[in-house]
Amino acid sequence: MNEQDRVTGSLYGMATGDALGVPSSFMTQDYIAEKWGWIDTFYPPEKGHIFHDGLKAGEYTDDTEQAMALMKSFIRNKKVDSHDVVNEILAWAERVKDKYASPLGPSTERALKAIKDGADINVSGRYGNTNGSAMRISPVGIIHGLRGSTCEEMVKDVYLTCLPTHNTTVCVSSAAAIAWGVALCVRGEQDIDFIVKETMRAAEIGKQYGYPIVSPSISRRIEFVYDIVKKSSDDKETMKELYNYFGGGDLAAESIPVAIGLFALGKGNVKLVNEYCVNFGGDCDTNAAMAGAMAGAYSGIEAVPVEWRETIKKVNGVDFEEFAKQIINLIPEWEC
Which domain holds residue 66? Predict the structure, then answer.
């Protein structure tokens, strides 16, 4: 499997997970099972969905859109420019403001409003506590995976993407865990145990950045989830157990450990991982976007079902193959 296969797999893993989770996001496990049985294809959100009302079946959300905003900025600047990143996100927010019910997560919305009102980007994200920093971070992981960077080198760039909207210890820690997981999978690492333990290490490095706010340890929570996953003899029962502990909501400390745990539960198989995430309950689309980005890189593009890929292309009008080529081509010029 070559670099193009893994990078394209990561992008489609993210986007398909995001779009699959549109109808089930912020529903309970029981409601999802009662309404859809088991989600393994694309459905529109129910009328009146608190966040996604207005989207079509197969459309992705802010998770993928903001990752694309980062990619556009990176391809243009060949480095992480925090000001340019926030300008891309602001431009995206303006484009989609009337597209569906609630395109912006709470931390991002609060920070963007402050920036529009003149706040310095060094302080605009100091109250972030949700998963928005991690949902969009996969391009940073892809780039540093291709570069062969150390985790410490990568986390510096992770922090620069978090700065405007999620400039807190818990959000940088969360984004670092997901980004490093993606980086290792892009490199072809196949040892799930090693990958999960490395996400814990990345979370510890990441928490050295940002404003300190009250939050549990992302690393310790990943460890707790993974201990449950390792004992699993029935994946669906394990999903119930994890849901009872964490719920998988949009707080960073609930969402990121669940996403990494479901990546491990699905053994990096992108189809299984995304289905587990979107049937889990809570912030389904975001959890699937994060876990799917890791699993798509781990399994490669051919493991992402063809019908899923074709739907994403058709409904969203996106060419992830071209994005993957551009990311790969910028690596020799990347500035840290």
Answer: 3-333
Cα(116)–Cα(170) distance, integer angstroms: 24
The closest of 292, 289, 284, 288 to 26, measured between CA atoms, is 284
What pLDDT does 197 receive?
Answer: 98
What secondary structure letter does DSSP report for 130? B
Residue 86's CATH number:
1.10.4080.10
Quote the CA–CA distance of 73 and 85 in Å, as a whole number.
6
Helix (H) or strand (E) holding 227: helix 218-230
Look-up of token digits 């292309």: 313
Which residue's entry shows tokens 């798509």?
Answer: 296
Per-residue pLDDT tens over the stretch 192-217: 999 999 999 999 999 999 999 999 99
- Report how far residue 4's alpha carbon sits from residue 8's, in angstroms, rounded to the nearest whole number: 6
Is residue 59 classed as helix, strand or coil in its secondary structure? coil
- In this predicted model, what pLDDT tens digit does every residue of 240-278 receive, in sequence order? 999 999 999 999 999 999 999 999 999 999 999 999 999
Q: What is the pLDDT of residue 90?
A: 86
How many domains does the chain divide into? 1
Do residues 141 and 186 touch, judged by C-beta distance below 8 A?
yes
Q: Is the pTM of this model over 0.90?
A: yes
CA–CA separation, 22 and 119 (whole Å)? 32
Q: What is the DSSP string of 280-307?
A: H-BSHHHHHHHHHHHHHHHH-GGGS-HH
Distance CA 158, CA 173 (A): 9
